[in-house]
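for the writeup, i need someone to sanity check this before i put it in the appendix. the sequnce is what the collaborator sent (i think, or maybe the updated version? ugh). structure was predicted straight from it, no edits. if anything looks off just tell me and ill rerun, i have time this weekend
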Amino acid sequence: MSTSSIKLSLIAVAGALLMAPAEQASAIGLMQAYNAALLNDPTYRSAISENVAGKEYKAIGRAGLLPTLQYSYSTGKNKVETTAPNFQGNETTSNTDYRSITNNISLRQTLFNLDAFARYKQGIAQSNYSDAQFSSKSMDLMIRLVSSYVDAKYAKDQLILISTQRDAYAEQKRVNDRMFEKGEGTRTDMLETQAKLDVAEAQVLEYTDNLINARNTLAGMTGSDVTQLDGLAEKFNVMLLSPGSFKEWESLAEANNAELAAGRYSVEVAQQEIAKSRAGHAPRLDLNVGYNRGVADSYTTRLQDITTASIGIQLVIPLYSGGYVSAVSNQAVANRDKARSDLDATTSKIMIELRKQFNSVKSSVAKVHALERSVDSSTLLVEATRQSVKGGVRINLDVLNAQQQMVTSKRDLALARYTYLISFLRLRMAAGIVGVDDLQAVAGYFSAVN
């Protein structure tokens, strides 16, 4: 296939993406996409399983403080051959067959065990850590979903804008050609327009590829192909930033951020690891209760049925373990210090992200308002420039430049609006307070009629 044929095929694909009938499109709104991602996003499904497993740490740790009950049963067929001297000084051999049965029930209850108590507290911290991690990943799903949705919608916006611009250049080229044929235009006008048209056609191919890739990314989260997305509504009124001061956002993040909570639980897990290690020097006291019934346990008791019940305590005092306890204790202390340093690093990262998104929300508001005015001005400029060309005041290149400015302004406005919405969610995520209500608020900026 020739290069020109490939180019025409890709342009046809772009046209199909833009002109596909609504009834044939798989339309999906932002909330629909989120609900689909809750069921189909592989990363989120992995987080669910990880959290289910993490919740069991609490039960695992508690098990060491609860009684253990064990039952055992054994049976066997025995054959004994006995050789012994008789009164005449000769050896006599006898064979005995018997069946043995043993039943045993034992119960052990910890009375004093610092290791078991530390494991219990560590299990609670590990389960809390898992919950905090899952909360963070649940919030992250919202951000990833909205980012993918916006990327796909922005790619579609870019494709529509550049396609519209390409069509305008094509129409301008036809006008230039007619004027040149009548002797009223110049070859320079024709070449200028052709050059702009060629660039626009190349950009159509580029943005078509970007749109396909963005939709594939979104489909990977929602579990189904998407060919139609809700667009931004005509009216775009920014939300009031509340609270208004950064100090208040810092306080919210310190109290609610899931990553910071996970970091604090990680330090607690490491602290309990120290307690577990040092418990290796501490005595352990257990209550033991047993019940045993033996029928023909041995050759000497082969004719007896013996039942034994016992209750008592067992004290174990560690004396020396070759330096193992000291070594693992020192290791645990180092790991605790590392966990604290990691928490400090996470805190710094969260606060930097919080400040970044706080500033982004505020600057995006001003940028949206400025670009709205720019779009209005550039739209009027295109029409005014066209009229000036007819009056001989402006030239063809001025029209092309005005059209380029209008497209750039519209593209930048769309990007500023999307950036505002993403920054709004990211700010609330950094503060640890983003939720479905916030996602619904963002969804309200999109309309199916767009």
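Residues 1-25 have pLDDT under 50 and may be disordered. Residues 3-65+113-282+322-447 form a domain with the Outer membrane efflux proteins (OEP) fold (CATH 1.20.1600.10).
thx in advance!!
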